[in-house]
Design brief:
alpha/beta; Aspartate Aminotransferase, domain 2; four-stranded antiparallel beta sheet; Aspartate Aminotransferase, domain 1; 2 domains; binds ligand C6P; 417 residues
């Protein structure tokens, strides 16, 4: 096979060396070797300007929000709401009140399950999911179905990990109430044709929730252009901290939905007889929110926007193309997920080697990948494997790191030869 050359044009897309200098953790060693961090689909790393924002908040601005008249509380409130504005701009929401801060994608989906599902899904209704969903976008809907007597319908996929759109169309009927779909698969990398799929759902009058956990960090997302009804994603996969995520919802849906949790800040008035709920988005943010994390996520979005989401997508596409070409030349490799449209996720198995052993041995080389079912057991079942090894890339990864991965895989194979 002919080797895949390094795509030279990418040098001009991003100055990766300069970008890497912003990430202190990328300078560290693991097992006395330079860290090669290829587990970005699980969690990405944080650059210094984002770390600095966290520290500045803690050192100078920390107070509770929406609650007091003192200066610090006003600063914290202003910065927290400024972060909401940044998120709205980042995904092109119509208005900041369509942005709810959550703990992450999982909580965002659970919020929709409680707020939308409890109100609009009844016995005999149907929810369409796809065969490539993360457990976060399966289990909440199963719980709802059990409670309500509703049922799940599953869009099947082909051997490349692409959803079968003809089959999707056939799943709609008068009982369909919601489509809940990954924008990008974490286990396969497949980028679903969500625009087209949303359009199809809307023709049937059915709203769509997108799980954007693996999309928002890697491509420009425009919720108005997509016309999705809900979009959930996590801060820690896009250079932000853990414990913060975003649920976008169209205002007309959020207005009609029930609150997710009850408590402070989500109310206008409370008596023992009756509570009047606050306006959106506060109706869905009960209790003290993750203020520091939200503000820091705003800084992460500034950082990503400064680099440019299109440039990020272009660099990662080049990395994927190069890594796929290199990996295909390794004997005994089976790539799991070979869709035409893919994000920079490479799931694979090595003949005769358990993915966990491969992951452990690669770690000894300083190379961090994930091995397991990736919280997508139905995907593993579909491809007849218990687990895969998964390398997932970010904009700060280099072609040299792809080479390190391939060299590492050869070493792993030698151990088992
Ligand atoms: N996937 C991975 O290694 P949370 O945990 O709430 O931030 O995100 C959950 C989630 C939901 N949907 C998709 C498509 C995801 O990829 C994830 C998180 C990580 O693939 C951890 S399992």
């Amino acid at each position: 096979m002919t080797p895949v050359p390094m795509p030279k044009q990418t040098a001009a897309v991003l100055d990766v060396d300069k970008i890497r200098a912003d990430f202190p953790i990328l300078m560290r060693q693991v097992h006395d070797l330079p860290l090669v961090y290829l587990d970005n689909a699980a969690s990405s790393q944080m650059p210094q300007p984002v770390i600095d924002r966290w520290v500045r908040y803690q050192q100078n601005e920390h107070a509770n929000v929406h609650r007091a008249v003192h200066a610090l509380s006003e600063i914290a409130t202003r910065e927290y709401e400024a972060a909401r504005d940044k998120v709205a701009r980042f995904i092109n929401a119509r208005e900041p009140r369509e942005i709810i801060f959550t703990r992450g994608t999982t909580e965002g989906i659970n919020l929709v399950m409680h707020g939308f599902g409890r109100a609009f899904i009844q016995q005999g209704d149907e929810i369409i999911l796809s065969a490539l969903e993360h457990h976060s976008n399966i289990v909440p809907w199963q719980m709802l179905c059990e409670e309500k007597g509703a049922r799940l319908r599953i869009i099947p996929m082909n051997d490349a990990g692409e959803l079968l759109l003809d089959e999707y169309e056939k799943l709609f009927n008068t009982h369909t109430r919601l489509v809940a779909l990954a924008h990008v698969s974490n286990a396969l990398g497949t980028v679903n044709p969500v625009r087209e799929m949303i359009h199809a759902a809307h023709r049937h009058g059915v709203p769509v929730l997108l799980d954007g956990a693996q999309a928002a960090p890697h491509m420009a997302v425009d919720v108005q252009a997509l016309d999705c009804d809900f979009y959930a994603f996590s801060g820690h996969k896009m250079c932000g901290p853990t414990g913060i995520g975003v649920l976008y919802g169209k205002a007309e849906w959020l207005e009609k939905m029930q609150p997710y949790q009850g408590g402070g800040d989500m109310i206008l008035s409370v008596t023992f007889e009756k509570t009047t709920y606050n306006a959106i988005p506060y109706k869905f943010e009960a209790g003290t929110p993750p203020i520091a994390a939200a503000i820091t996520l705003g800084a992460a979005m500034d950082y990503l926007s400064g680099i440019g989401m299109d440039a990020i997508a272009q660099h990662e596409r080049a990395l994927l193309r190069y890594a796929t070409g290199q990996l295909r030349q390794v004997k005994g490799v089976r790539l799991i997920g070979t869709a035409q449209e893919k994000a920079a996720v490479l799931s694979f198995t090595l003949e005769g080697i358990h993915p966990h052993d491969a992951g452990t041995l690669l770690d000894m080389e300083g190379i961090a990948i994930r091995a397991g079912h990736h919280c997508a057991q139905p995907v593993m079942q579909r491809f007849g494997v218990p687990a895969t090894a998964r390398a997932s890339f970010a904009f700060y990864n280099t072609f040299a790191e792809v080479d390190a991965l391939i060299a590492g895989i050869h070493k792993v194979q030698k151990v088992f030869a």
